[in-house]
Write a structure and sequence with these properties.
Layout: E1 7-10, H1 16-27, E2 31-36, H2 40-52, E3 57-61, H3 67-81, E4 86-89, H4 104-132, E5 135-142, H5 153-172, E6 177-184, H6 195-203, H7 213-226, E7 234-237
Parallel strand pairs: 1-2, 1-4, 2-3, 4-5, 5-6, 6-7
């Protein structure tokens, strides 16, 4: 699907990977709906960068832990741009806690944002895409969904669920909408990782380097423009670390 003139909604697009993906989509001609929850200034900076580069973008605020907010978000994007052609589920929570520390709120926060939100976003946007005859949904997952991380139980479970959700959505929205997941490895480690932990991540990849936001953005572009045949697939983007 050619991205020029298509409307792309990217969640968590004010920061980190969401920002890189949004800018890359804009560079390929897409109109961007920049979602944020708290990062208003960062989201507006992304909008300004896209507009100053000759593109079109607008920011939208929503708490993705609330289904009513998700429904409002998708309705507002459609009211602003007339359609949604691409959805990138990028927003995520990633907090390190031992099993002894995990609370009910921790569990709910991970499952609500990392799994429930992608489903309802895909439901509301996917139905519109299917009516329009085509669309792309890309979930930013994690290899933790295949090989769980120590001290990240709720996160790992949510990402395992996202892989299953990707496959279920691919069947539910076929043939018009292709739904795929990018299973990320060490890309932009959390802020609380120290130098030794980051170096360990680098050494345990087969490529002997960390991934970059540009690597992720290129994978998203490929799944949008590079092929219309992949759906229900899990693209491993982790430098071969899962093989070590």
């Amino acid at each position: 699907m050619e991205l020029k003139g298509k409307v792309a909604l990217v969640t968590g697009a004010g920061r980190r990977l969401g920002r890189a993906v949004a800018i890359a989509l804009a560079e390929h001609g897409a109109i961007l709906a920049i979602h944020y929850r708290k990062s208003h200034a960062e989201a507006e900076a992304v909008v300004a960068q896209i507009v100053n580069g000759g593109g079109r973008a607008q920011s939208f605020v929503a708490d993705l832990e609330q289904v009513i907010e998700i429904e409002r978000l998708t309705a507002e994007v459609i009211a602003a741009f007339g359609r949604i052609d691409v959805l990138v589920n990028s927003a995520s929570v990633f907090v390190r806690k031992s099993i002894e520390e995990i609370s009910e709120r921790d569990w709910d926060a991970n499952l609500d944002l990392n799994l429930k939100a992608p489903f309802f976003l895909s439901k509301f946007a996917g139905i519109v895409m299917r009516k329009n005859g085509r669309g792309k949904i890309i979930n930013l997952g994690d290899v933790a969904g295949i090989r769980p991380y120590v001290n990240y139980i709720p996160y790992s479970v949510s990402k395992a669920g996202l892989i299953g959700l990707t496959r279920a959505l691919a069947k539910a929205l076929a043939p018009e909408v292709q739904v795929n997941c990018i299973a990320l490895g060490p890309v932009m480690p959390p802020d609380d990782y120290d130098a030794a932990e980051i170096e360990h991540l680098r050494k345990t990849t087969l490529t002997k380097r960390l991934g970059t936001p540009a690597d992720v953005a290129r994978a998203v572009i490929f799944l949008c423009e590079g092929t219309d045949f992949a759906t229900g697939s899990i693209l491993m983007l982790e430098g071969g670390r899962i093989l070590n």
